[in-house]
# Entry
Amino acid sequence: MNTAAPYLLLHLFTACLTWGTHPPEWKTANCVVIPKSGKKTYSDPKSYRPISFQSCFGKLLESIVAKQLSQAALTCGATHPSQMGAQAENSAIDALLRTITPIAWAINQKKAANKTPLRPAILTRNIEGAFNQVHPVTLREVMQQQRMPQYLTEWVTAFNTDRKIAFGFGQQSEQPQPYRCGLPQGSPVSPALFLIYSNAMLERSHQSHDAIDASYVDDVCMVQMSTTITRANTLLEERTEEHLSRGVHLGLTFAPPKTELLYCLPLTSKDKNRSLSTHPPLRINNNTIVASWQNKYLGVHIDESLSFLHHTTMAAAKGNRALGSLNFLRHHSRGISAHVAHHLAMMAILPTMFWASPAWWTGTPMVTATLRTTYNSVARWITGLPLNTRTTNLITLSQLPPMEAYLDYLSLRYAIRLHFLPQHHSLGPSQALSETHPNLPGLYRLYALSKHLVHVEDCPITVSF
# Structure
């Protein structure tokens, strides 16, 4: 096609955006239902994820529109920088650090005379249904209220009109059937549209330095600073009720089973030994939410003192499971070579175990000891050496870097990126960071890691919330 008609797609895509249309042939999707991992039962339809396969040409156009939508939405205020998913130069680690950094600062504050330090409470929730709850007519209203470019509004309307879907189960599939609600999962433009739609529910009526919001697509986290737990609960209830009242018109709500509450305290606090039952519960829409010792957000288990001991235990278990799934490939007389095994370890096992490490790795001995056993098992799988091999020889012959050096490298690589974020980024420069304890994670530690590599006067240690 590029040889016969090099400008065909360019003219076709330009015409679609100019006239606000989307070809009917690109609106039919073949939907494959995939089971979600880790579910207790698969008799519930929510235990499956529908993935839509669409025309490749249509997805090319959708990818172009998705970039334009993200830029226009940020400019018009239809999305907020605290929404990390589906926006350029944003990641899940950014959302984690936006949550963890103010917590680390708060629990590092010492009690001064006649002044009680602020203590954070964390409430994580999930928007129920997400893409499936988006109403095309309401989405158009939201885009018009936010004064999005007219050509994008018209194209999105055409994109969501007269769509058809054919479900497939196993080797069987049905005839395409029309549907009028929801965004196709698997479409490049769906995450950008969902951010615009959900922001109408999540946008804040007023700014407060004691209230921090962060979200990644449909995963929402609220941090509330307060001197007492009772006051923190009251403020969290007010913020949640405001979101829910806005969500009524949009058809959006939060899923109660995926709501978790955590109160954070310093390691030396006398209240750490108190039972969770002594804390006042949080009540939202007649649902009682009881605090827990850990809170899982974007795959990371956040504990009350940011020690991440529980998370590293779970991370080591994930690494062992990933290693177990590949263990049969390695054999002393047959199977893959040590070079291929090393490649699999670096590309599959270690990324699983060290997911989002810049947000939680601080190099503390207890965290290191928890991960080292699994790391040594990976090295032993690569080399095939016996159990009595010295660890130093094992790591050297496996050609794996020392674990602490590798985790520091991952943090340093992420920290260098922080210095070059745009001004509008949620972690971009605005407010000076305060120094925190060296064993606590957060942006200050990452900036301190990279300050010898980047000129600090040009890139100050700053962040905005």
